[in-house]
Structure formats: C-alpha cells, structure tokens
Amino acid sequence: MLAVFDLDGTLLDSDSTALWLWDRARRSLPRLLATLLVSPVAIPMVIAPRTRRTGASILLWIATVGLDERGLQDSCAAFASRFQAGALPLRWRRQGVQTLEGHFARGDEVVVVTAAPTVLAQALITPLGRPIVVLGTSLKRQAGGWVADVHCRHQRKCQALAEAGHGPRWAYAYTDSLDDLPLLRGADAPMIVGCGKAAKRRLGRARLPNGRAMAW
C-alpha cells in the first residue's frame, strides 16, 4: 500500500522553505535588505494561491542569486545539518514520524509530496535513513539565481504522483492543509492532521465522507 505525506505542517512543525530562505537572507546584508524591500509585495503573493509561485520565486531568487547547482545543494545540506543538530526553530512532529514508521513496519511504500523545493526536502528527509521517495517543486536557474519551475502544490501533487508511477489513487494521505484537497480525495483513507479543533474544522470544510481528523 502507498502512504502519501505532506511535509511542512505535517511531518515538520513549520515551513522549511521559509526558514531556509530567511536563514540565507539574514546572513547577507544585501540579501536581507532586498528581502525586506520586496516582502510587502511578495508575501501577500505567496499567500494567494494564484500568485504563490511568482511570489515564492521572487524570494527564492534573492536568497539564491550567485549560487550554481552545487552551491544550491550545499546550502540545503548545511541547512539540513543545522536542523538535525537542533539549531533551527524547526522540528519533526513526533506523531507524524511515528505514523510514518508504522507504515514502514507494515511494509507500505511511503512518498513525501511537498511544495518545498525537492532539493531542500530531500536534504531534510535523507537523514531519516528510510527509503522515502520525495516529490517536490523543481527549480530552474534564471538570471544568476533560482526560481520555481513546476510548483508542486494542489492538483500538481497528484500529477507528480502519477508521473512517478503511483497511479491516480493511493491508500493513505496525510496533510494539514486544505490546499491538498485533491491529494486527500485521491486517498482511500484521507487524514487531516493538526491540533485537534483545527483539524476537525478543516475536515468539516473538506466534506470527505471517508476522512478523519488526527491531532498531531
């Protein structure tokens, strides 16, 4: 059976991409000033689904301009190392990781599908030491920096799973966000996770007859 997990807010307790971008920005005065200058425009764009990819790309470009592919990989690896060392305000959700481990114990296949850049998500997931397939947002080089190419969110997550050979349906889906409603609808057992009351409210809005709310 296939178990599909979102990353940020589901297995992790915060937004890994936002923390990585801010971590890079604050270490460079020019990047910091540029980030603060564009944030009043870029952040509302990130919040709105239709402009999310563009807004994220603006912040991503500022954080990564000057990095080649190796530099991008090294930056994500360094961020992941600091995360593993507990030096960042980012943690694994204990119950999320326990649920993931339970699927491995039953012999299930596990895929993490996330809007985070694949290169970053892979760096965070690899130290778990499990055969987890990671599907995320692809990046492309543009004007000396990196921007989002194919943004892995909403319906695109289902397309990514199909392109990876997992078909149109899966046994389990875990997410904290109703932006992943297509992912939930494709699951035999859709799970909306989060603090108890919030998860139940999202479950009611999702109107999934076979859905469950899980307090993580």
UniProtKB/TrEMBL annotation:
Keyword Hydrolase: yes
GO MF annotations, alphabetized: phosphatidylglycerophosphatase activity
EC number: 3.1.3.27
Keywords assigned by UniProt, alphabetized: Hydrolase
Organism taxonomic ancestry: Bacteria, Pseudomonadati, Pseudomonadota, Alphaproteobacteria, Caulobacterales
Name the record gives this protein: Phosphatidylglycerophosphatase C
